[in-house]
Automatic annotation (TrEMBL):
Pfam family, one: Hydrolase_4
Keyword presence, Hydrolase: yes
Domain Serine aminopeptidase S33: 45-248
Keywords assigned by UniProt, alphabetized: Hydrolase
SUPFAM superfamilies (UniProt xref): alpha/beta-Hydrolases (SSF53474)
Source organism (scientific name): Flavobacterium laiguense
InterPro entries: AB_hydrolase_fold, Hydrolase_4, MAG_DAG_Lipase
Keyword Coiled coil recorded: no
A GO term, aspect molecular function: hydrolase activity
Protein name: Alpha/beta hydrolase
Length: 339
């Protein structure tokens, strides 16, 4: 890609953005937004951050940490999210998670062309599911070097009987009638634990990330379900992967400070179990005491631990890739640890 033009981003403070025009889809015009903040000293390494469901990039704390560690920072607002929402879009709408691959391909191509030779691909929640599948489907053609997944959405947080009955029914409906609207079922308190207008410390656009997410449709359920089935059947990636999650899930019936101590969105047992189905060159799974769903937005002592874990892991594996010999699947090095 050439002639990429940046303008000042809504975050200001050195953040810039560029709009990438994508081919039209079933809703018409599609765009992706790439956000960046460059390091004053060109480091030749960068991270690309992929957000989750009902989300967009606002987490400047991630950018500042990576910049301090000598990286250029980039983030994507995927199609139909945040900065990339257009009037013709149903927010978050997707029928196959591979629709996002073009967004990621284009972003990584730009990042490479801007002189970054080592790239960390980072995904949170649904973004963690997307980048895991992307890494598996791009084997041998990777434009990144390592993966970091923050509470990846590897399974629906519903009872076992619903996973075996309700989800497959909704998924089948989504193949036939993708636009049928369905309710969203995650905790209404999660957003309140984040936003500074309620109980949190973060400021962000509530139109782009409302406390109560817009209705999903059956097509979205099918896209996610098919992605979950791929994980459950086993995926293989040729790069190191770090998977972070909270040490416990919480199920609040009313507001309490417990919201600051666990994952109110996903079942961390699902994350740990499904992570076993991800085969990688090197894999580490780390549970973080006191972390919330978006572990980097946890209270400061916890997120300090999160970032220490990330950067120690990257120091170990980002720059040793060229020294690792190619191995076949049987000999593939896998490190699985719980902390």
């Amino acid at each position: 890609m050439t002639d990429v033009q940046y303008v000042e981003d809504v975050l200001q403070n050195g953040f810039e953005q560029t709009t990438i025009i994508q081919p039209n889809d079933y809703e018409g015009k599609v765009t992706t937004t790439l956000i960046r903040k460059l390091n004053p000293k060109p480091p030749g390494k960068a991270t690309l951050c992929i957000h989750g469901f009902n989300d967009y990039f606002f987490q400047t704390v991630i950018a500042e940490e990576f910049l301090e560690q000598g990286y250029n920072f980039y983030a994507l607002d995927l199609r139909k999210y945040g900065r990339s929402q257009l009037p013709n879009h149903m927010p978050n709408n997707v029928r196959n998670l591979s629709e996002y691959y073009e967004d990621i391909d284009d972003a990584l191509t730009i990042i490479k062309e801007e002189g970054n030779h080592k790239i960390v691909l980072y995904g949170h929640s649904t973004g963690g599911l997307i980048v895991t599948l992307y890494a598996s489907d791009r084997k041998g053609r990777e434009l990144f070097d390592v993966l970091v997944c923050n509470s990846p959405f590897y399974d629906f947080n519903v009872p076992w009987i619903q996973k075996k009955t309700v989800i497959p029914i909704f998924s089948f409906l989504g193949r036939l009638h993708p636009n049928v609207s369905l309710p969203v079922g995650f905790s209404k308190f999660y957003g309140k634990s984040l936003h500074k207008n309620d109980f949190g410390e973060w400021d962000y656009n509530l139109n782009w990330k409302p406390h109560v997410a817009p209705s999903i449709n059956a097509g979205w359920v099918n896209a996610i379900h098919q992605g979950h089935l791929k994980i459950a059947h086993g995926v293989t990636i040729n790069k190191p992967i770090l998977i972070l999650h909270s040490h416990k899930s919480i199920y609040p019936k009313h507001w309490s400070d417990e919201m600051f101590e666990g994952d109110a969105i996903l079942n961390i047992t699902d994350i740990k179990e499904k992570s076993k189905r991800v085969k990688a060159l090197i894999k580490e799974v780390v549970g973080v005491e006191g972390a919330i769903h978006d572990v980097v937005l946890s209270r400061k002592p916890v997120r300090d631990t999160v970032f220490k874990t990330i950067f120690e892991w990257l120091d170990n594996y980002l720059f040793v890739m060229k020294h690792l010999k190619k191995t076949n699947d049987q000999d593939c090095k896998i490190k699985l640890s719980e902390k």
